[in-house]
Amino acid sequence: MNEDKSLLRPEWRQWLAENLALGVGVEEVEQVLVGAGVSLEVAREEIAAAGQHPYFQACRQVARHFGWLESLMETYSALRAQDGGRELEVREGLTPEEFFRRYYFGHRPVVLKGAMKDWPAIKKWSVPYFREHFGRVEVEVMTGRDANPEHAAQQDRHRSRMPFADFLAMVESGRRTNDYYMVPRNDNWSREGLSPLREDLRAPEGIIDPSLMADQMTLLLGPAGTVTPLHHDNMNILLGQVMGRKHVKLVPSYERHRVYPHRGTFSHVDAGAPDLVAHPLFAEATVLETVLEPGDMVFLPVGWWHWVKALDVSASVTFHHFVVPGGNTHLDAPP
User: Fold this and answer.
1) Residuewise pLDDT in 10s, the chain (335 residues)
2) Which residue from 200, 193, 265 is spatially nearest to 228, judged by alpha carbons?
3) Between 20 and 30 A from 317 (CA), which of 22, 115, 306, 334?
4) By CB neighbour count within 10 A (0-12 exposed, 13-18 middle, 19+ buried), where does 71 fall?
5) Cα(first)–Cα(last) distance of the chain, in Å?
6) pTM value?
């Protein structure tokens, strides 16, 4: 069947080729297409046409080259599962030595309790506090996110500037929404107006660089309902929850083949409500979960996939400059 005369929408043709290349069975692909309203005859014609297309043949050959790597990752995943890899560890009073040995170098996430108890921000930060001390400061935030499913990857299209007081009024309106959010790429730390907020933070001793330079950390602030879609960062991150609660889901870096990567560091999967018909391999993913309370920190290893949803009006900070021999670890993002 000529692609230009295909009866399938482009997104379904992409889904078809991707799943066949990933090794999903023909009968299973047929069932999904028929369930979506495609006739069995058309489904079979499309599958046959895809298999004969030279682009798809090249795609299959590339998939075979990567098959050995996925097999290795499957073995690693099974080994880690036997070593407690299906539980998100929660620790309190963790020494820097053990943090680096078991978690940073061990490529394991961990929730840290009590690591923020000396932060003035824990007692001071609130919407009224921000308004009283910084309300007139002009800030940059992301707006109009709900209208664009690709907002996380197309952030330059959503930048807005406004007085901080106006954004705070939106945040405390009581709406549960993902439409507006102050995210790390807004880079408000580096602007003079909000820089005094950094004085309310403390670097976890022996783990994070105590200089707390603006380019070594970020601020996130928004209403209940904000969502950071499933993605991974190209560096190790330590996230501290100052205000409100956040629901966090993590998937290991070595299960990349189960999260349907998209735009390099993002995933096609909505981890809040995964569609296992469209993304069946996600059913096999190891998903670790936690709810961060104010004062909790979570270590997100480089390459680990994570999804985050605010359950309340929320303020978080992240650090990415660790005190480690040999410097920090970064990951070159795949295309």
Assistant:
1) 444 567 788 889 888 888 888 788 899 999 999 998 999 999 999 999 888 888 888 888 887 777 777 788 888 888 888 877 788 999 999 999 999 999 999 999 999 999 999 999 999 999 999 999 999 999 999 999 999 988 888 888 999 999 999 999 999 988 899 999 999 888 888 888 899 999 999 999 999 999 888 888 999 999 999 999 999 999 999 999 999 999 999 999 999 989 999 878 999 999 999 999 999 999 999 999 999 999 999 999 999 999 999 999 999 999 999 999 766 666 654 44
2) 265
3) 334
4) exposed
5) 30
6) 0.79
For the record, the structure tokens of 209 come out as 């660089």
